[in-house]
Amino acid sequence: MASAPPPAMATATAVALVLLLSSVAVVTVVAKECTNVPTQLSSHTVRARLQSTPGAEEWRWRELFHDHLNPTDESAWMDLLPLAGSTTAAAAAEEFDWAMLYRTLKGGVGSSAAQAGATPSSSSFLVEASLHDVRLDPGDEVYGRAQQTNLEYLLLLDVDRLVWSFRRQAGLPAPGAPYGGWEGAVVELRGHFVGHYLSAAAKMWASTHNGTLAGKMSAVVDALHACQQAPANGGTGYLSAFPAEFFDRFEAIQPVWAPYYTIHKIMQGLLDQYMVAGNGKALAMVVAMAGYFGERVRSVIQRHSIERHWTSLNEETGGMNDVLYQLYAITNDQRHLVLAHLFDKPCFLGLLAVQADSLSDFHANTHIPIVVGGQMRYEVTGDPLYKEIATFFMDVVNSSHTYATGGTSVSEFWYVTDSRMMAEVYTLSSVGSFMSEMILPGSTRSV
Ligand SMILES: *[C@@H]1O[C@H](CO)[C@@H](O)[C@H](O)[C@H]1NC(C)=O
Ligand SMILES: *[C@@H]1O[C@H](CO)[C@@H](O)[C@H](O)[C@H]1NC(C)=O
């Protein structure tokens, strides 16, 4: 932004920096443990390996969990927020107040919702050309053909098969059979592909206005709407292909495979159906989901502590912050803004805020979306610290964490950079098993 930030914003930034600095001082004691327990376990690569040793899975889970669990983890966040002992904590205990939590997160400097919602002038950013206004030449040998292939693939997918596990979760009749791979009926990530489908179909429809695809994607939204409204979900707003019990495990810091990772995909898919394809029903569904998960997070903080919530973020949560900032930009509902902040994982963004190059050993798939969400925070709220965080992150990745192939991680993790030998060792030892995972029939890879 060209102009200097208003004084209130500068103060808020300074306070946030001090908070982040003090958290980093504590975090360094336990090094990278704040990130990879239990993310290490939910790494898709690690999970794929565990699943390729049939029978031993439970045992391996326990072994890995104990190997990596650091009992001091929770203390790493204890000083992050000035909650304990303050008068605000007592008041908050009586009645949970989203506005109060928001002020606390912002460092107690009395930011108002209006300031938080202040959007930087639209001229600060490039404006996207709408997909509705762009057409590829169908005769083009490369891009035209690629688009046609992608369209035909999306049209191959069957509505009943896509939503099968959602219907089963909702207690509704589920004709047909579910898809396999990670959409399989007992795979803990089931449903995330449907979120990708909704995003892809919305963008493909905007780029082609193909009526067949329009019918299919709105049939998927309608079927998911019926699941969200089903008595089994009791008007809570819950919408998922797996039971809510997965979130009990997530909140109890017990092994579970990344339930918020999947919820992010579904929320983003529905939001794209609204933003790109104009489906108003899809927006109402995302709002209901945000309500359900907002209640869950509020309950964790009330029943346990905010530290417990931060600890749970060691599990991979996809771009929850990203999609919630986008939602807030549409609804202007402060609860969506606060919930977005609560997915801005502080122990990782804090390191970037103080410009520490400490990417090595972090799980890349978990943390890249969090930075993307941080950039969205800047774009939506104008908070300049988050622009600096994203810019610094890109500089570090580009200058010291990029392989000749253009990739940034090996088997989903960043490694020590200043030793070429390390990179070679990791590449050589992991390439065999990595390749075999890539070609497993029915497997899907995504970030
Ligand atoms: C959508 O695209 C498919 C594949 O190109 C085509 O067969 C179909 O006729 C199109 N639908 C409409 C309504 O144009
Ligand atoms: C990445 O680094 C290369 C080599 O230093 C540089 O030429 C390029 O501009 C950088 N790209 C970005 C996006 O910073």
UniProtKB/TrEMBL annotation:
Residues 1-31 form the signal peptide. It comes from the Eukaryota. PANTHER family: PROLINE-TRNA LIGASE (DUF1680). One of its GO terms (biological process) is carbohydrate metabolic process. It comes from Aegilops tauschii subsp. strangulata. This is Non-reducing end beta-L-arabinofuranosidase-like GH127 catalytic domain-containing protein. Pfam families: Beta-AFase-like_GH127_cat (PF07944). Keywords: Signal. Residues 134-415 form the Non-reducing end beta-L-arabinofuranosidase-like GH127 catalytic domain.
